[in-house]
Design goal:
The protein is built from 16 helices and 2 strands. By secondary structure, it is an all-alpha fold. It has a two-stranded antiparallel ribbon with strand order 1-2. A hairpin with a 2-residue loop joins strand 1 (152-154) and strand 2. Helix 3 (32-56) runs parallel beside helix 8 (167-188), helix 3 (32-56) crosses helix 12 (249-262) and helix 5 packs antiparallel against helix 11. The longest helix is centred in the middle third of the chain and has 27 residues, at 213-239. The radius of gyration is 21 Å and the shape is globular. 38% of the residues are buried.
């Protein structure tokens, strides 16, 4: 009888059950509010995965929401202004965002460090100002109302996005998050993912080992730009509007907070946990009659995570810590007591 490694399989089974619950959630509830929260959380999860990938190379982007805006406006302009069908324009939105990320990366990733953060911050503001002032293209503060995705016929069923039902958008989100998660998970556990990590740990040592810093940073920045563009295009179509104020500095800071709170040790897991918790928390906080309470609580959560969890870890790392406690294994962050270290 083959050996059953329960310490490995029980956590996997629990994750599988949680995924199954999310997949069949519309069977149990058709609440517009509940499904909308999960849809938006999934969209921000994709953006956070892109930010974390860039962070894995040792670069801190402060303008990641700009690529959501680029994807959203690209999709909307192609469909509304140029009359392109929705699905080709959606695919092009990510490609256009990725091309712009490639161009920006080739220019600004040469400087690196704090200068890269400042430049990406300025780039994000430039995108917002352009969207606000270029009324002939973006309609300025009035915004663009993108068309609803067309009905899809699949296995004899019609999936209608125009019926006011969030369920089609929910499953579209599930598919998009799943595809993005698989790709980013493969990158994280591949040779190139190890190269990204080595750049963040010690770029001087990485250079001495023959790793081309610029090349790998541009690759990460471009991949993040593509998927963040998809997230922006989906977000604009889900909300049925795009304005210059939807993807500003605060949205870039939110992405950063979600990454830090979720944890950068796992690109996929950290993004899922951080985006879901903070976005849901933000929705409920916005209902309280307290001015700017959302910013205060978000900042407090980030500070608490940084203070009480080991450096470089987030809420996702509590998952492994929980199972080590369940299986009575020593925690990797705990220092053995003197009695345990004594040699008989």
């Amino acid at each position: 009888m083959p050996y059953f490694d329960y310490k490995t399989w029980i956590p996997r089974i629990v994750i599988g059950v949680l995924i199954a619950i999310f997949v069949i959630l519309p069977v149990f509830t058709t609440s517009v509010i509940t499904l909308s929260i999960f849809i938006s959380s999934g969209i921000w999860t994709i953006a956070v995965m892109g930010f974390t990938l860039v962070l894995r190379t040792g670069q801190f982007s402060m303008g990641q929401a700009a690529f959501m805006a680029l994807g959203a406006y690209a999709s909307a302009i192609l469909t509304v202004n140029l009359g392109m069908p929705f699905w080709p324009s959606f695919l092009l939105s990510g490609i256009i965002s990725g091309i712009i990320a490639l161009i920006i990366g080739l220019i600004v990733l040469r400087v690196g460090g704090i200068y890269f953060s400042i430049i990406t911050l300025a780039f994000g503001e430039l995108v917002r100002i352009f969207a606000q002032e270029a009324e002939g293209i973006t309609r300025g503060v009035r915004g663009i109302i993108p068309p609803t995705p067309p009905t899809i016929s699949l296995l004899g069923f019609d999936i209608n996005f125009a019926a006011g039902n969030p369920v089609p958008y929910y499953y579209f989100m599930i598919i998009l998050v799943a595809i993005t998660a698989i790709i980013f998970w493969r990158i994280e556990h591949s040779r190139i993912g190890g190269t990204f990590a080595s750049l963040a740990l010690n770029q001087t040592l990485a250079e001495h080992q023959g790793i081309h810093l610029m090349k790998y940073r541009v690759i990460a920045f471009t991949i993040a730009g593509v998927f963040t563009g998809f997230a922006g295009a989906f977000y604009a179509n889900f909300l049925s509007i795009i304005t210059p104020f939807m993807f500003g500095l605060w949205q870039s800071i939110q992405i950063m907070m979600m990454s830090v709170v979720g944890g950068i040790s796992s690109i996929v897991g950290g993004a899922l946990i951080g985006a879901t918790i903070l976005y849901t928390l933000g929705i409920y906080l916005s209902r309280l009659p307290i001015y700017n309470i959302q910013y205060v609580v978000f900042g407090t959560v980030v500070v608490l995570v940084l203070l009480f969890l080991p450096k470089g870890t987030g809420l996702v790392d509590l998952w492994g810590k929980f199972w080590r406690k369940v299986f009575r294994e020593p925690d990797e962050y705990e220092i053995p007591e003197e009695s345990e270290m004594a040699v008989e």
